[in-house]
Amino acid sequence: MAIVIDKSQRWRIFAAHAFLIVLCAIVIFPLLMVVSISLRPGNFAAGSLIPKSISLDHWRFALGLPVTGPDGRVTQPDLPVLLWLWNSVKVATLSATVAVLLSTTAAYAFARLKFARKKAALTGLMLMQMFPTVLALVAIHSIFSRIGHAFPAIGVNSHWSLVLAYSGGIALHIWIIKGFYESIPPEIEEAATVDGATPWQAFWRVLLPMALPILMVVFLLAFIGAVNEYPVASILLHSQDRLTMAVGAKQFLYAQHYLWGDFAAAAILSGLPVSVVFILAQRWMISGLTSGANKG
Amino acid sequence: MPKALKRFLLPAVILALGLAGLYVITLVYAMGESLLAAVMLATLACFVWIYTTQKAYVYRYLFPGIGAALIFVVFPMLYTVRIGFTNYSSKNLLNFKRATQYLLEETYRADGSTFNSEVVPDGGKWRIRLEDADSGAAFLTGAVALEPTEQTVTLQAAPTSTPVPDGAMSLRDLIERQDALKNLVVVMPSGTHVRMTGLHEFAPQRLQYTRNPDGSLTNNQDQSVLRPNFKTGFYETADGEQVQPGFQVDIGWQNYTQIFTDASLREPFGRIFLWTVVFSALSVLFCTSLGMVLAVLLSWDSLRFKGLYRLLLFLPYAIPSFISILVFKGLFNQNTGEINLVLHGLFGLSPTWFSDPFLARTMLLIVNTWLGFPYMMVVCMGLIKAIPNDLYEASAVAGAGPITNFFRITMPLVIRPLTPLLIASFAFNFNNLVLVNLLTGGLPDFLNTSVPAGTTDLLATYTYRIAFQDSGQKFGLAAAISTVVFLMVAAIALIQIRATRISQDDKG
C-alpha cells in the first residue's frame, strides 16, 4: 500500500476510532436499553442502564406464564406473545416454501429455455417490483373479503390469505435463482439430454440438486421477509389469536395500555432469532453465490 | 411406473383438476361473485391449455410463478385503479344484489295478538308451545330438531289443552339456540304466520319490502316506494331520503375532483405530498452521507477492528424493523422514555416528540437514518473496493490529503453507480408506511380537515388511514389517492431505469 504516512496519521486514526465508537454507542444504546428494560420491575420504572433490582416478570409475561403483581395478585398475560410468534413462523414457513416452489421453475425457464418476449417479461418483473404493495392495500383487502364470501378458509382473517398475498412477490427471488442457474455451465444438462433425459428430468435431476444452496438462501430471505411484513398483515388479520408478531407487537404501546417492560422482553424474544438468522444468511448468501460462480 | 400409465396419468390429473375447478367456479358464480369467478375461469383455462399443449411447454415452468405475480401483484394494482372510480366505502359496502337481498330480508312486527312461548322437549326433538297473550288459548307445534341452519323451517301449530310440561328449555339454552329458533315460522290454525320476537315471545311478523317487477321496492308497512339510485348508490324514497345499506356504483371522476378541488381535502393532500418528498429526500441524504463516510473509514487499511465495527454498525439492518421502530417509540416517549431522561439529566430539556409537528418530523428522520444507513454503508463499501488503487497512489504522489481524495476520487466514482440505488431508496421512503404507521401513526393531526390528516403522514399512510382507520373506511377515495401515487411512483421508476442504463453504460 502506498498511502503516504505522515505525522497527522496517528491523529486521524484516533479521530476515526473516536467517531466510530460514538456511532457504535448510538447504535447499541437502544439495544442494550431494551435488554435492561426487560429485566426491570414494572412497566413505568425509569432507571440506569444496569438495573438495580432484577425481575423476570416481563419475561414470564412474554412466555405466557402467570405473573404475580406487587399486591400479590396473580394475573395471566393478556397478550398471547408465543401464539403470535407461532403464527409468524407458520405464515413465514408456508410462504417461503411457496416462494421457492414458484420461483425456482420460473427462473429455470428464464435461464435456460427459449421463448418469445423473454426480455420483455424480465423487464416486466423488474418493473412490478418497483410498485410497492402498500399502494394496493385497498384492492388486496377487497379481493380477499370477496374470496372470503366464497371460501372463508382463505378469506380475510385467515393465514392462507397472507400466504397467497405474499406468493406474488417473487420477482427478486426469480432474479437471484436465475443468476445462479446461469453460473452453471449448460453442458452438464446437455449431457443428460443426450442420454435421453426430457427437459423436466434435466431440470429436476441435474440442475436442481446443484442449486440447493441458493434455494436455501431464497427460502431464508422469503422467510425473514414474511416475518417482518407489516402492511398487508395489518389489514388482513383482525382477531387477536390470528395476528402475527409484526401486527401484534404494537398493542404493547397503546397510550391506555402501556406495557413497555413486557414489550422489551417480547421484542428480544422475537427479534433475536430473526436478526441472528439474517446476519448468518447474509454471509451465506455471498458465499453461496460465489461458490456457484466458482463451479462454472 | 409402467409407460402406458405414465402417459395417461398427467392428462387424467389435469382433467380431474379442470373438472373440479369448473365445479368450484360454478359455485362461486352462483354466490354472485362474478368477477372472482371470471378470474378463476381465466386462470383455469390457462392452466388446462398450458399443461395439455406441447407448444406451450415453456409456460409450464413459468405459469405458477408468473400466474401468482399477475393475480396477486398486477391484478390488485389494476383493481385499485378500478375501485378509485367507485363509491366503495363502509356505507356502500355491498354490491347491488346483496344490498337488495338485505332489504328484502328485513321484517317488521305486524298487527295481531302475540303469543307467550315455551320450548318443550319431545323425545330428542323440541316442540313450541304458544299461549295467546290475550285469550290464553294454547297451541302446540310439530316436533323440530333445532339444529343450526340457514333455512327457514315452517311448523304447523294445533290447539292443545295440556299445561306446560316439565323440562321446558332454560333461558341459557334458548339463547344458545336462538339462531335456529329465529328461523322458525309457525303457521297458526287461523292462517297467520308468527315468528320469534323475544326469548319467550312469538308474534306475527311480515317482510318489510316486496320487490316490484320494475326493480323498485314497496314498503309493506306504509306502502311507500323505494327506488334504487345508481348515481348515489342508495335505495331512495320519493323525497330522496337514503335507506341503508347502500351499494357500490361507479361515480366516475368524483373521487379525483374531490381530491383536487375540495379545499378541505386538497390542502392536506398538498401539504402531505410536500412532506413526503422532503422526508424521502432527507432520508436518502442522511443515510447516504453517513453510510458513505463510514464506508470510507471502514475501507481504510490502517484502521484496526474494522470487522467488529462493521458487525456492530450492521445491526440496525438485521433487526426486524417493526421491532426497532417500536423500541424507538418507547424510548422517545415524552414522560417515561429513556431519551428524554438523558436529555433532561444533561440539558434540562424534555422535548414533546409526539405532539409538536416539527419535533415529530425530526424524530422520524432520526429513526429512519438509524434504520437506513447500514444498507448504504455496505453498498458503498462494495463500490469503494472496486476503485483501482493506483488512483490513490497517483494522488499521493501529487501530495493530496484524505479530504481531497474523498471529494476528487472516491465520491465521483461511487456516486455514478450509486444513483439507481439512491432513486430506489427515495421510492422506498416515499411509501415508507411501516415507519410512520408504527412510530407516530401520522399524528399530530392538522386541524380543519374533513378527513383526518396528520403532519407526519406520508401519502401512503394518509391513504391507509382513510381506508382502514378513522373516517368511515372510504375505500373509493383511498384507491383514487393510491392511483395518483402510482403515477408518481411510475415517474420515479422511469427515472430509475434511465439512471440504471446510464450507470451500466459507464461500466461497459
From TrEMBL, chain A:
<feature type="transmembrane region" description="Helical">
    <location>
        <begin position="164"/>
        <end position="181"/>
    </location>
</feature>
<dbReference type="InterPro" id="IPR035906">
    <property type="entry name" value="MetI-like_sf"/>
</dbReference>
<feature type="transmembrane region" description="Helical">
    <location>
        <begin position="263"/>
        <end position="281"/>
    </location>
</feature>
<feature type="domain" description="ABC transmembrane type-1">
    <location>
        <begin position="85"/>
        <end position="281"/>
    </location>
</feature>
<comment type="function">
    <text>Part of the ABC transporter complex MalEFGK involved in maltose/maltodextrin import. Probably responsible for the translocation of the substrate across the membrane.</text>
</comment>
<dbReference type="InterPro" id="IPR050901">
    <property type="entry name" value="BP-dep_ABC_trans_perm"/>
</dbReference>
<feature type="transmembrane region" description="Helical">
    <location>
        <begin position="12"/>
        <end position="39"/>
    </location>
</feature>
<keyword id="KW-1003">Cell membrane</keyword>
<keyword id="KW-0762">Sugar transport</keyword>
<keyword id="KW-0472">Membrane</keyword>
<keyword id="KW-0812">Transmembrane</keyword>
<dbReference type="Pfam" id="PF00528">
    <property type="entry name" value="BPD_transp_1"/>
</dbReference>
<feature type="transmembrane region" description="Helical">
    <location>
        <begin position="91"/>
        <end position="110"/>
    </location>
</feature>
<keyword id="KW-0813">Transport</keyword>
<protein>
    <recommendedName>
        <fullName>Maltose/maltodextrin transport system permease protein MalG</fullName>
    </recommendedName>
</protein>
<comment type="similarity">
    <text>Belongs to the binding-protein-dependent transport system permease family. MalFG subfamily.</text>
</comment>
<keyword id="KW-1133">Transmembrane helix</keyword>
<feature type="transmembrane region" description="Helical">
    <location>
        <begin position="122"/>
        <end position="144"/>
    </location>
</feature>
<feature type="transmembrane region" description="Helical">
    <location>
        <begin position="202"/>
        <end position="227"/>
    </location>
</feature>
<dbReference type="InterPro" id="IPR000515">
    <property type="entry name" value="MetI-like"/>
</dbReference>
UniProtKB/TrEMBL annotation, chain B:
<dbReference type="InterPro" id="IPR035277">
    <property type="entry name" value="MalF_N"/>
</dbReference>
<keyword id="KW-0812">Transmembrane</keyword>
<feature type="transmembrane region" description="Helical">
    <location>
        <begin position="418"/>
        <end position="439"/>
    </location>
</feature>
<feature type="transmembrane region" description="Helical">
    <location>
        <begin position="358"/>
        <end position="384"/>
    </location>
</feature>
<dbReference type="InterPro" id="IPR029345">
    <property type="entry name" value="MalF_P2"/>
</dbReference>
<keyword id="KW-1133">Transmembrane helix</keyword>
<keyword id="KW-0472">Membrane</keyword>
<protein>
    <recommendedName>
        <fullName>Maltose/maltodextrin transport system permease protein</fullName>
    </recommendedName>
</protein>
<feature type="transmembrane region" description="Helical">
    <location>
        <begin position="58"/>
        <end position="79"/>
    </location>
</feature>
<dbReference type="Pfam" id="PF14785">
    <property type="entry name" value="MalF_P2"/>
</dbReference>
<feature type="transmembrane region" description="Helical">
    <location>
        <begin position="475"/>
        <end position="495"/>
    </location>
</feature>
<comment type="similarity">
    <text>Belongs to the binding-protein-dependent transport system permease family. MalFG subfamily.</text>
</comment>
<keyword id="KW-0762">Sugar transport</keyword>
<dbReference type="InterPro" id="IPR000515">
    <property type="entry name" value="MetI-like"/>
</dbReference>
<feature type="transmembrane region" description="Helical">
    <location>
        <begin position="311"/>
        <end position="332"/>
    </location>
</feature>
<feature type="transmembrane region" description="Helical">
    <location>
        <begin position="7"/>
        <end position="29"/>
    </location>
</feature>
<keyword id="KW-0813">Transport</keyword>
<feature type="transmembrane region" description="Helical">
    <location>
        <begin position="35"/>
        <end position="51"/>
    </location>
</feature>
<feature type="transmembrane region" description="Helical">
    <location>
        <begin position="272"/>
        <end position="299"/>
    </location>
</feature>
<dbReference type="InterPro" id="IPR035906">
    <property type="entry name" value="MetI-like_sf"/>
</dbReference>
<keyword id="KW-0997">Cell inner membrane</keyword>
<keyword id="KW-1003">Cell membrane</keyword>
